[in-house]
Give the backbone structure.
Amino acid sequence: MSDLLEYVQDRYAYWAIVLLMIIGLYGMLFKNNLHKKVVGMIIFQNSMILLFVTAAFKWDATVPVRDPEIDVQVVENYLNPLPHTLMLTAIVVGVAIVGVAFALLIKIYDNYGTIEEDELLNKLESPSPEDDGDCDTNDTQRSSSPKGGSA
Amino acid sequence: MNWVLEIFLDILLLTTAIVALQAKDLMTSAVATAAFGFTVALLFISMGAIDVGFTEAVVGAGIVGVFFVAAIYRTTRKTKD
């Protein structure tokens, strides 16, 4: 029993990451608002990056920058920089994905006048020819959207 | 790595993640997302990944926040959940 407790306690960083992953997945699957789905995606991405950086951590090791006073030949003295470099690429790819997601979201709002998933599905199920014009007239908050102002 | 600091940052991380998902106002959600990104950056730096840390600070707290606020201004601020 104490072995099991020690096993759980030693890996506290991983448990926080697993909880974060569950929160991100919940946000992506069960949230109705498309902004909230993007937030869930950001949380999930960051939890994956955090998992790899945590896996690269060693106790009593220093940052992967060469110090003349610390022996480079001994592996235990320095962290392994390879997972860090890979995760640097993942962060850059992640911000590109978030940018494309927000661009798609703005286009969806311009076409359908809503970013709630259930209203969006209703409008997709019953496409009427004057649907586009209908959206424009009954959506009063649209007048404050910068579509008119930015032109 | 100080384990007290790390547990504090982990709790802050979970709190900001839940606030970002449950907020009724999307601007609150944007600010909580930026705070989440900065906490992740602090956690990276505490684990010795300095290069990943400052990239994440620029991206997570800066660019994603700006994108989010820009998207809110072009769409709507209210949400049902």
